[in-house]
Amino acid sequence: MCWMDVFYHPLWAVSTALLAFVVRLQRRVGWDPRACPVRLTGKTAIVTGANTGIGKFIALDFARRGARVIMACRSEARGMAALKEIREKSGNSNIHLQLVDLSSMESVRKFAERILEEEKALHILVNNAGVSGLPKQLTKEGLDMTFATNHLGPFLLTNLLLDLLKSSAPSRIVTLSSLNHKKGQVDFSHFHGENLTYLMDTVYNNTKLHNIICTSELARRLKGTDVTANSVHPGVVMTEVMRHYPFIIQLLFNIIGFFFFKVSTYLLFTDTIII
Ligand SMILES: NC(=O)c1ccc[n+]([C@@H]2O[C@H](COP(=O)([O-])OP(=O)(O)OC[C@H]3O[C@@H](n4cnc5c(N)ncnc54)[C@H](OP(=O)(O)O)[C@@H]3O)[C@@H](O)[C@H]2O)c1
């Protein structure tokens, strides 16, 4: 008998399947946002990319806790669908949609103008929207699409809304980064799509490093203002984040993710790393 035969024994398959399901169950310990005692009544929050994935559940959590939530989305149809769902699930009607394309600095400026005109206060800004795996693509403004969406747009937005955040203090800015920033590089020519390798998540990694550098510097400059700025790695979460990757990569992500990754409904308080 060859030692490899042990892998063909039915017990092997049964114990592997059992182990996989134990891991899956253990990873999926339920988390109920309603269990959080902190209320956000009277607080106004903006969440970018709030129509799906992590952003949608952040918006839902804020809504359940009584905040006025502004969902900053680029698609009216997807934004409205998520808005209806969040209103229904939370019972909070103070949820609003404002359109913004974070890859366009013109759109970010118009969005910020509207917010400054319409909102008396802003207590929470969550820079959540992001893309990964895009091929080389320049925006009309001559910026690399991934850099514009993940870093330049959120950076501009934060700075345009900073005075309102300061006048509403205590307030906070949270930027979704990623542990992948460790593989990132800083080179300002990247902003215009120069000297970049468009392979899998290489451009994404660079943008996530910029998120952290700028947020850390902002936090330093905001000391004493009662406005905090943090970058956060949410863990690996089953969302639409892989949608621009080749089919085979998406398939692998989903298979591995089924057992090991988080789903966005319970990510907010599990394994999240503040960077
Ligand atoms: N999922 C993970 O494992 C993971 C790990 C580390 C960090 N993160 C970070 O977490 C954040 C959220 O990711 P996710 O996993 O929830 O991804 P997702 O499911 O793909 O959601 C991304 C959101 O960003 C929006 N968006 C993309 N481009 C935009 C633009 N130009 N203007 C405005 N909105 C735009 C999308 O809107 P549309 O639906 O209209 O495209 C969508 O609402 C990202 O910053 C990501 O880098 C995620």
Automatic annotation (TrEMBL):
UniProt keyword annotation of ATP-binding present: no
Gene3D superfamilies with a match to the protein in the record: NAD(P)-binding Rossmann-like Domain
MF terms (GO), sorted A to Z: oxidoreductase activity
Keywords: Membrane, Oxidoreductase, Transmembrane, Transmembrane helix
Sequence intervals crossing the membrane: 247-269
Entry similarity comment: Belongs to the short-chain dehydrogenases/reductases (SDR) family.
Name the record gives this protein: Retinol dehydrogenase 11
Organism: Xyrichtys novacula (Pearly razorfish)
